């Protein structure tokens, strides 16, 4: 075989055609993508800027020397390849690892499994035929494993390798590369972006200069994406802490207005109810000859009621009563005030008021009826039996009666405790021994049948009470007695002491009700009050029954339970709201408002530059002056875009 001449290989030499698509070295592709068009032009010394690389190969393994000047034949061969050039060129410094061909043929012979086409000596084969031969050989190489004749598709690893390569390529092209390009884009100035525009991902390269801000370094990115949101979260935490503390203090204040304006409800505009028209006495022997319908238990504003003394009298008249015992907690003042109102001419003959007080302790509630002073012997949380006896005796001295109220309510288990509302409540037998006069056998809608039977067995006074506190309450029971038309305090008290009483009971209660209007003052303070009441749910302050004693406090042991789960959910919802706020802020400020401001600043600056002649008129420039003009335009444009990015 003739050795190649100094001027290059003859057509008789073997030429290995390597398609550019077979080059697998990343460095070659990366380097070639940034070469200018001048370096890609064919030349006698660079005949490989085509899709195929010309590699001399000697079948005889003889030593060949590189040609210094291309021969006419070589130039013709180079020119024959030139129409096959494409925009995605490959560097002339192709890696030999893509298809390594040794002089001895290598481990797998002179043609590796990477695939190659040959032009034998003395033949003139067209390039299309060479490419066809090359393609056939490449496909043959792809279908056979290296070093074996077994088809590649029979290997269980080839499919996994192909799938992994596709997944890696997808991740690199559509996730990693755009992210890295965007990161570089954000950290670059406008001038740097133009200089390295070809290195960006196509999606990033198309962005207008005012669309995204740029950060000069990593610290601004961390400050914008991490530190500032953390500062906003810290600010939100401080605001919530101040809000919780302030609203809690505000909700615990005294005298806060209620939603219902009970003071405005002073009239009950319906025909007074006549209970005798549809109810009969509980004991048939009492008969229908009665003229007093008495309420033995009621409250006004002098304790925890919501009605004034006059409104309380109107409520009783509207619900069919013509006599009432006003018994506020631990005070006779409410009864005396109601008695004074009843003496007015407006209420003459309509209703009789008997003053009383309800002794309210942690052991029992007892009405002291028909007295004219406050008996304070047993007004304390835990009065002794002797103090209760002295109180009953003092009541009798004043001509009054001692009646035990609502035993079923007193013995009901207090919520949160395994104890009754009234702890150490004396038994009925003990109360009789202390000198009690009778029992309240109906309180509200509750009928105490045990006390009723006990009264009948021990010949005690029977009395009922509404225990009314609010004007929108029903009436359920009426104590009836007969005074023969002389409905005075003394005659009523005489009938009570004589045990000549019965009662009417309606378990459904009276139907007409009057509802108070909403209090306009409540809305002024409702937001902080309701917020404070919500935050009070973070713990349970279990106090039990209120004592009504002068020292205040409760009848049960107080304990506080922290609701950690509720607090945790509250914090979680706050974080969810904060994340939604940050997402909305990113959408509105980052994606809408920020680009709008940057674009407006960009257009304003551009307009000023056009007016100053920095942008317009560049088409008429020529020579060195044109170059200086273009430099001025470029500088102005860079300044314009840099300023737009800072918005």
Describe the secondary-structure layout.
Blueprint lengths: L13 E6 L6 H7 L4 H4 L11 E6 L14 H10 L35 E3 L7 H16 L13 H31 L3 H6 L6 H4 L12 H34 L40 E7 L10 H10 L4 E7 L3 H10 L9 E9 L4 E5 L15 H13 L3 E4 L2 H5 L16 H7 L3 E6 L2 E2 L1 H10 L2 E5 L11 E5 L7 H9 L4 E4 L14 H16 L3 E4 L16 E4 L1 H48 L11 H23 L2
Parallel strand pairs: 4-5, 5-6, 8-9, 9-11
Antiparallel strand pairs: 1-2, 1-3, 4-12, 6-7, 7-8, 9-10, 12-13, 14-15
Top keywords for this entry?
10-stranded mixed sheet; 647 residues; 5'-3' DNA exonuclease activity; 18 helices; Pol/His_phosphatase_N; transmembrane; disordered N terminus; alpha/beta; Pol/histidinol_Pase-like; 4 domains; TIM Barrel; 15 strands; 3-stranded antiparallel sheet; Polymerase/histidinol phosphatase N-terminal domain-containing protein
